[in-house]
Structure prediction request, 526 residues.
Amino acid sequence: MRLQIMRAALLGGVAMLAQIAGVHSQQAQAAPRPPLEYRPALPLEANGALAGRDMAAPVATLEDAIALAYWTNPSLLAQRSTLRAADTLYPEARSAYGPQLNLQASHAYAYDRTETQDDVWRRDKGFSSTADLIFSQNLFSSGRKAAAEGAALAEIEVGRNQLRLREAQVMLDVIAAYVAVIRDREIVGIANENLALLDRQYDSSAKRFKVREITSTDLQQVRTRVEFGRAQLLSAKGQLGASESRFVQHIGALPGNLAEPSLPLSGVASLDQAYALVDGNSPLVQAAMAREKISRANVASARAERGPDLSWQGSGSYGTVTPYQNRLRATEIRSALVLTVPIIDSGARRARIERARQGNDADWRLVDMALRDARQSAASAWDGYQAGRLSLAHYRQATEAAEQAYEGALAQEKAGMRTTLDVLDLARDLLTVRTSYVSARANEYVAKSNLISAMGNLEGPLLVPAIRSYDPQGNFQRQDGRGDVPALTYVLSGLDDIFVTDMQYNRPIRDSAGLTMSRQQLLGQD
Prediction:
């Protein structure tokens, strides 16, 4: 009986807890979430660059779109902040040459119970306060700190080239979004004209059907094309809406009455010239070279572990004689030169050196791969641009021919020399050719932008010289010197550099494919 009562009480408690949990869950689901808070704010550098511009105004030119994205695109601004964070690595590495001073203070309670004789105990207890100053100054590290300094500079170089890559991608997205809106607006206009043309054809065919000049089948053929034209118009409008949303995503403003892009995108005359620019200017290659410098610094740091380390250490302590009271005080001052010389480590240092050396060799090989990738991107962009540029004249001629063919077919239909299906087929051809011509113009402009991006020149100030350029060197100069101790840092840094080889030069390309400079040589053409 008692077990049954306990079981019933337990089940009742579980049911009550489940009910309470359900109520809380419903309240949590019903509770409204606070709305997002908007506080528009531009970077300090952008205030002057975008002064006088109404940020809510639609964009009308490609120059305006590039300038707006250059100073407001969140991904580009985030990459700049990442680079500014990397700039602090250099003063942090330089600060290792300076002194380190730490204060340690304590107020402690101690209780000890000691058996002095059989069953005789002594109890000591009380509070005590102590303060310690600990000083250290490294004087020589066999290149360890110089290696860390070189690695920091290489990290910053990687960050700068990553910023260039991000900026090129943002500019490419801006250009693609801009020309996509122009393209899709033209396609919507073409779809509207095509539908109006088909409506006129349907009205004319309906009148001819009434007088039995054409059959019901002919009329239904026209109606089929009319309904398909309406569907094509809706599809074109949907594509235009998607392009306008991407415009806002990349540029940060609504598209207005967009002018045709008039930027004189300066390209190159040959693929060889493109390769030459890639070799010397591609941020992809430059970033790979910087990563190789980082691992090269790791090799120098591992090798420096075999050398001696000399430091000056000191300490000052003010405390109590015993840990049980503060009445009797003691002062201690210590100073020493500490020399540490590695002798035997059972091969640990040699293993670390070999691991670092092989890692550096891998990064060196990846420089070769980065050059291949950059050249492949340039070659692919070059082929796409040349194909697009050369095809424009053919699309233009095809459009003119399709218009003439359609107008002629209308006249021949009225004379009984053409069927309704012939006219509809030519109308469809005219729509296809006009749409293809508009798309080809947009693709040619984007392909040229891709080529400039592959060569490392798709940057805002290079595209629009009037844009106020972001200077990554400015923040680095502000950070430089913050970790230095006058005279001391320069002396110790120069002493440490003696034992480390130059880590800032670019190593040569080892890939034999790097000697292939022209497409004609590659294909064996004349």
Residues 179 and 442 are 6 Å apart (CA to CA). The radius of gyration is 38 Å.
